[in-house]
Amino acid sequence: MTRLFAVLAFFIAMPLSAQLELPSDPEPTQTAAPEPAQTIAATQDEGTDARIEQRVSGIFAELPSFQDVAVTVSEGVVSLSGTVPRAEDVERAEAIVNRVSGVVTVENALERDLSISAQGGGIASLADRWAGFLAALPLIGLAIAVWAVIAVTGYLIAGLGTIWHRIAPNGFLAELISSAIRFGFVILGLVVALDMVGATALLGAVLGGAGLIGIALGFALRDTIENYVASLMLSLRQPFRANDHVLIDDLEGRVIRLTSRATILMTLDGNHLRIPNGQVFKAVITNFTRNPQRRFEFDLGVDADDDARAARKLGRETLAALDFVLANPPPEARILEVGDSNVVIRFLGWIDQTQTDWFKGQSRAIPAVKEALEEAGFGLPEPIYRLRFDPRSATVPFENIPEGERARGSGQSPSPAPAKTKHTITVTEADEDIRPANEIATMVEEERRTSSGEQEKDLLDRSRPVE
C-alpha cells in the first residue's frame, strides 16, 4: 500500500503534458493586430457642430442634386432631410458627409423626389437627356458624315467591277467579293461613328443581337444557305459546259445554264428541268459529252447446241465491218451465261459521238449482228415451255386442253402453224442515217440566246477548264 500511494503521488506531481507524452506546441503564428476602431472624443470643442454643418452645407450647395437637402448637426451627429432627384443620390450624400472630419454618425432621412415637376426626378432626367442630346447634335452629325464617307468609299471600291472580275475566277465570285466589300465598309463606318459619340457599348449590343438572329436564321434557312454555297462551289469547279449531255443521278438532259440557285437542263424530250444546286453538288454526275468516244452494247442468245465461240467471232467481224464502229478500241463479244435454251452473248462496239448518234448506231448494230448470225445458221431460240398433263387427273375439262394435245389424244395430226408473212419493205441508206441528232442541242443554243437578258446570270465559263 505504501508503494501504491507513492506511485500515485508521483503521477499527480508530474505535468499533464509529460504524463500523456504530447509533443510540444509549435511556435505560435504571428497574426496581424486588428486596427483599432475609430474613437469618439469624450469632449467636443465649442463650435465644432457649427463648423461641420457649414462645411456640409457648403459642399451640398455646389452640387445640383442636393439643393433641397437640409443639414443639422448636434454633438457630431449629422441629420439629413429633404429630397434628391435619383435614388443613388441618397447613398452619395451619406458618403460625402462621412468623409467630413468630426462627424460621428449620419441620420439619413433623404427621399427621392417622385413629384411631376420641373425639379422632379423623371422630368429633370428627361430634360437633362434632351439637353445632352442637343449639345451632342454637332458631334452626332459629324459621326454620321464620317459613316457616310466611309460607306460611299466602300461602294466606290466595290463598284470597280473590272478589277474584281480579273481577280475572281467567275462573275458570281466577283459579285460576292463586291458585296462583302460594301458590307465591310458599312460596318467599319458604323464602328467609327459610334466610337466618336462614345456609344461603342451600343454597337456591342447590336452586334450581339445580330449574331443571335444570324444563328437562328442559319438554322431556319439551312437549305437555302447550303444551296447558295453549292452554287459558289459549282461556279468555281465548273463540272460541265453549256449544252453538255449529262446524267445527274437519274435526271438526264442537256445543260442550258448554271445559275446562283439551280442548274437548268433540257431533257431529251424537250422539257425544262430545274435542279437545286445543293442536290447537283452532292449528286453523281455522268457527262456523256466530255469524251467523244462512247460504247454501246446489246445481248443476243444463240442455241445451246451451236458453237458460241464461232458466234462471238462472227459478231465481232460483223461489228467491225460497220463503217461507223471504231477500229480502236476494237469491237468485243463476251459470253455472259448459259440460259435454259440458249447461250447469252454480249456484243460491244465503240462510236465517235461527233460523227454518229449513239442511239442510231446501236439500232443499226443490233439487226446487223442478228441477221449475220441467222444467215450463218445460228439459231436464236425463243424461250421453250414444256407442258405436262397427268393422265391420272380427270378434272381437266376438254376445252382447257391445248388444240395440239387434243389432236394427239384423238389420233389426229395437229394442224400446221400458219406461215409467216414476209415483209417487202426496202430499207435505204437514207433510212439508216446515223449522223448525230442535234435537235435538242439546237434547242438549247436557241434557249441560251433568247434568255441571255434574264436576271439570273449564267455561271458557266468556257474560258475555265472543266473539272
In words, what does this structure look like?
The protein is an alpha+beta fold. Among the domains are: 48-112, Histidine-containing Protein, Chain: A, CATH 3.30.1340; 123-220; 226-289 and 444-450, SH3 type barrels; 293-375, Alpha-Beta Plaits (2-Layer Sandwich). 45% of the residues lie in helices and 16% in strands. The protein is built from 14 helices and eleven strands. The protein has a five-stranded antiparallel β-sheet with strand order 7-6-5-4-8, sandwiched between helices. A hairpin with a 2-residue loop joins strand 4 (245-248) and strand 5. Helix 5 runs antiparallel to helix 7, helix 6 packs across helix 7 and helix 11 crosses helix 12 (358-375). The N and C termini lie far apart (116 Å).
Question: Would you summarize the structure shown here?
Answer:
This protein has 467 residues and is an alpha+beta fold.
Which structural traits does this protein have?
467 residues, alpha+beta, Histidine-containing Protein, Chain: A, SH3 type barrels, elongated, disordered N terminus
